[in-house]
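Chain X:
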Amino acid sequence: MGGSGSKSKGFWPFSGSGSGDDAAKDGNEQSLARVRSFPGATPFVFTRRSSMYFDEDGDLAHEFYEETIVTKNGRKRAKLKRIQKNLTPQGIVKLDFPCIHVDFPIILCEA
């Protein structure tokens, strides 16, 4: 499946070098970058899009199957058929713990 990187072009949300005082104090360390036009922006992600769906009964799951009986050569056999219609996505889910944005340009650990 794909990564969760940003797909928009031309907007880099973490394009700032922080304040000039921090760079002077810590020459070897990188400071947290802030967005220039949005001073209150943070590098953390608090919500995500859920990968689960509701069916018409209100059940919540990643996938739904129904059992069908197939007769082949006079022999009955149960088979699972995946349901893909009449499903509604769960939507946006709040994360229990904030995560760091995938496009955040700071090295957290060098091994």
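Chain Y:
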Amino acid sequence: MLRYTLDKHGLQQVRIIASDRLWEPISFVLLLDSELHDVVDVIGAHYPGTKTVPNALLTQKKLWSSEDYSTFNDEVGAGCWARILNQNYVNGNMTSTIAWNLVASYYEDLPFGRCGLMTAQEPWSGHYKVEAPIWITAHTTQFTQPGWSYLQVDGHLEGGGSFVALTDGLGNLTIIIETMTHNHSQCIRPPLPHYNVSPQRATFYLRGSFVWRGSFSIDLDVDEVYTLTTLKTGRKCSCPEPPPPQPFPSNYKDDFNIRNPPFSEAPNFADQTGVFEYFINGSDPGDHVFTLRQVVVQRPITWVSDADQTISIIGNFHWVNLTVTCDIYIEKQDDGGVFIAGRVDNGGIYVRRTKGVFFWVYADGTYRVTGDLAGEEVLMKGLSGVRANAWHTLTLNIQGASASGLLNGYPLWENVTISKPSNGWAAIGTRSFEFAQFDNFHVEAS
């Protein structure tokens, strides 16, 4: 059905990869189901540990590691990337390895912080860092191109490590060698069995259609990557130094007053569930024409235990004392609700267990203060008079072990004792997947 639908809409060039999980049962099913075999172009597995299975090879399909890496981008992460880039082909006949993720552009204290090939997590300062995995990538990508083919050789080195050889079919040849030791190349998953690598001299023999034939030897040390190539195109970057790193501003405001924003989402807010987008509120003739709106109204199908609420975080995970102020507009009648929050301690795949100080107001005229996003740890509750389809201003003040809240500039609750978390981000969000608007966000923190 998918292949038929793609073709019907003129998307014959779009190929199908299945099943982006494990090698089985998709490989076995492809061998049994000729119709499915005809429409699947690539078998993709996630984190295969450089290994494949016999059934996958029997299908004669292209094999990809369609998600891999997701490892902290230090020297060990670079070793992981070097090893799997080679050994996914050497051990598993995989001709593509896709890294999750390319650029770590999210708050570092979220799950999988700095698990990108490079890091660019400070849009407020412009700072970025080209991490070691980028240079490992260049050992392959600067000296090959899409359309090159792997040569079918035994890529295992006698002293440990591996090599791959690729050609453009026009006489050019590139050989990439890696000698990563076990402790210098462990990926986040799967577990890596122990093995040994030692310094060695490797000899390579060139035969066939290459212009130059014969043999050559090279001395290899451990934890190294070497590229040997007939190309002369590789070079090191001569880019200017990035701006210096800076902490997130401790006094931050956003009124969202942008008529033609370059992006749909406001800067520095990191949506964990839901989607918060710039919105032009044409029905408001006053101060809230340009707002930020939560726009997802149906809980999506997720691959982890996602939250039932929406939440977007902002700021510095290490903030302790902070005051958050935001204008809010509940659009969902009767059971709608929104919150502002501080000391938010989690997100990503762990968002469902997020703790913090959450100040909720609901369309039924009540409010709650909770210690968690799920709303199960109630610290205080009462009447607020808030209704849907009207703007209100919420203020949350957290100082030490005490928190207080204001509604439209007047105290609504105070002296709520906070035991944990001790620090975290600021946040905004909604009770469910519902329309709601936010404006004039302001946080002061220390």
